[in-house]
């Protein structure tokens, strides 16, 4: 390719996370040369137009199908409720669009596999947007783990506790609610980031609400060589000190609150920081400016012809969702 043309984005969903993604993407130093928010789609034309006006998108659609049919759009960000993730991902892939879909892609590995296999068949990029993996400090964490500076790593701990069970989409079974898919997935991805393999054994416990969706969980992942990960997450407690630690025989890495979207990380001999700038539209979630990194990563993958991310690729989706499947089985979580 002679030059890197602008990547035209279609945005499905005009809610909080889509706002944060668009606002964060616009903070990229090369935004105007590499990215363009071309179209917004929502469940109503009015809502789509209001969102489009905020981000100066030239097109607003009251139907997601219109995004699929728009020939100007090369990539689609899916930021709707996750009960729609598989359907819309398949729709956009069928239309020949690359896809960045908010997590969780689906409640089961088999449903995730259906989407990934179709993306491979269509020779298109598909990213499940576990945004943690695209933060520069997560690269630094992986490099430090692989360097040997920590010695033999034998323990990983994470905690993610915030009072969110009053949120409608999380407390209802028909909306595939629960905290495992919402915040527990961040704890799981962190352990997988460190160890890079499936655990040999999983021990999980959690409590379900009256509708049968999970409100909290404690999970132990047991790996070969007596290595372990201890994961704690809850949607019904007061906010905790939501940190993560990697412990080795020679040293440790500490990631302060919020470990899934950290502003900084304390390595064995230095502290590294991310740039998390404010965007043109106020953010709704912690450190949402970091969403800029997944947008930038998608651009680089597409323009270099890579269809599987080295930071969070198909093997990572498989590993994490197979662990989710086993945890769901053990705690009695069924959709």
Automatic annotation (TrEMBL):
Gene3D superfamilies: Dihydrodipicolinate Reductase, domain 2 (3.30.360.10), NAD(P)-binding Rossmann-like Domain (3.40.50.720). Residues 139-253 form the GFO/IDH/MocA-like oxidoreductase domain. It catalyses: (1R,2R)-1,2-dihydrobenzene-1,2-diol + NADP(+) = catechol + NADPH + H(+); D-xylose + NADP(+) = D-xylono-1,5-lactone + NADPH + H(+). One of its GO terms (molecular function) is trans-1,2-dihydrobenzene-1,2-diol dehydrogenase activity. SUPFAM superfamilies: Glyceraldehyde-3-phosphate dehydrogenase-like, C-terminal domain, NAD(P)-binding Rossmann-fold domains. It holds the Pfam family GFO_IDH_MocA_C3. Residues 7-126 form the Gfo/Idh/MocA-like oxidoreductase N-terminal domain. Its EC number is 1.1.1.179, 1.3.1.20. It is an enzyme of class 1 (oxidoreductase). The keyword Oxidoreductase applies. The keyword Iron-sulfur does not apply. Keywords: Oxidoreductase. PANTHER family: OXIDOREDUCTASES, TRANS-1,2-DIHYDROBENZENE-1,2-DIOL DEHYDROGENASE. Belongs to the Gfo/Idh/MocA family. This is Trans-1,2-dihydrobenzene-1,2-diol dehydrogenase. It comes from Mytilus galloprovincialis.
């Amino acid at each position: 390719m002679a030059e890197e043309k602008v990547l035209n984005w279609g945005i499905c969903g005009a809610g909080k996370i889509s706002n944060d993604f668009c606002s964060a993407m616009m903070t990229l130093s090369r935004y105007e040369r590499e990215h363009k928010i071309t179209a917004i789609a929502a469940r109503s034309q009015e809502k789509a137009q209001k969102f489009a006006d905020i981000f100066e998108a030239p097109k607003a659609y009251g139907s997601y199908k219109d995004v699929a049919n728009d020939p100007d759009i090369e990539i689609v960000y899916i930021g709707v409720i996750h009960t729609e993730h598989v359907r819309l991902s398949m729709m956009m892939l069928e239309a020949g669009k690359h896809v960045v879909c908010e997590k969780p892609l689906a409640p089961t590995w088999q449903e995730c596999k259906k989407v990934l296999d179709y993306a491979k068949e269509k020779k298109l990029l598909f990213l499940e947007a576990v945004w943690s993996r695209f933060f520069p400090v997560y690269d630094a964490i992986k490099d430090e783990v692989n360097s040997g500076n920590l010695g033999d790593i034998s323990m990983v701990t994470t905690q993610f506790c915030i009072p969110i069970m009053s949120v409608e989409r999380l407390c209802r079974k028909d909306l595939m609610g629960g905290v495992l898919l919402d915040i527990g997935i961040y704890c799981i991805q962190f352990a997988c980031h460190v160890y890079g393999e499936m655990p040999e054994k999983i021990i999980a416990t959690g409590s379900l609400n009256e509708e049968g969706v999970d409100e909290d969980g404690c999970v132990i992942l047991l790996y070969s060589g007596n290595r372990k990960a201890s994961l704690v997450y809850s949607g019904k407690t007061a906010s905790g000190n939501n940190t993560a630690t990697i412990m080795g025989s020679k040293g440790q890495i500490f990631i302060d609150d919020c470990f899934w979207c950290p502003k900084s990380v304390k390595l064995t001999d230095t502290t590294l920081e991310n740039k998390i700038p404010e965007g043109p539209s106020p953010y709704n979630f912690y450190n949402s400016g970091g969403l800029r990194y997944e947008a930038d990563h998608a651009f680089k993958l597409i323009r270099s012809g890579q269809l599987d991310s080295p930071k969070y690729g198909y093997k990572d989706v498989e590993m994490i969702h197979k662990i989710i499947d086993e945890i769901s089985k053990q705690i009695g979580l069924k959709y």
